[in-house]
Amino acid sequence: MRILMVCLGNICRSPMAEYVLRNLAREAGTASDVQVDSAATSRYQIGDTPHRGTRRVLAAHGIPCGEHRSRQMTRADYDHYDLIIGMDDENRSDILRIVGHDRNHKVRTLLDWTDHPRAIADPWYTGDFETTYADVRESCEALLAWIEEQVR
Ligand code: 4NP
Q1: What is the dotted CATH code of the domain comprising 2-151?
Q2: What is the pLDDT of residues 105-136, one digit of tens each?
Q3: 40: helix, coil or strand?
Q4: Residue 70 Cα, ligand 1 centroid: separation in angstroms?
């Protein structure tokens, strides 16, 4: 299953979700079931590496963080990926604006996979990367369990 994690800048939340989900799949021995990338809705940080706060929180939890560079998602991503997952409702409406009609119901928000759907707080504004990490981790665990139900 091909997953695109999406946020506003593609330097804080969506690369965090990309690396957390990839690492969970690797630990579970199911890495071959999931291909995960990330992208921005905006052009604000194109070409930039993940934010220092994201790199720090991933390192603190023993999760490898690669040399991802921010890119803006495109309409073509809609056909390539099975799921396009925003972090909040603003991401969701920006994604829909970019892709047009969501004819295959691919556009979701990450916390939809938990028991209490809400927005993932943006640490660019809150400065709190740990709270964002906790929500990303909880969602990615639930998402990976769901993916395994779909592909097995
Ligand atoms: P992200 O956070 O969407 O989680 O990557 C942000 C990063 C950059 C900006 C806003 C949010 N910005 O305005 O440049």
Answers
A1: 3.40.50.2300
A2: 999 999 999 988 889 999 999 999 999 999 99
A3: strand
A4: 10
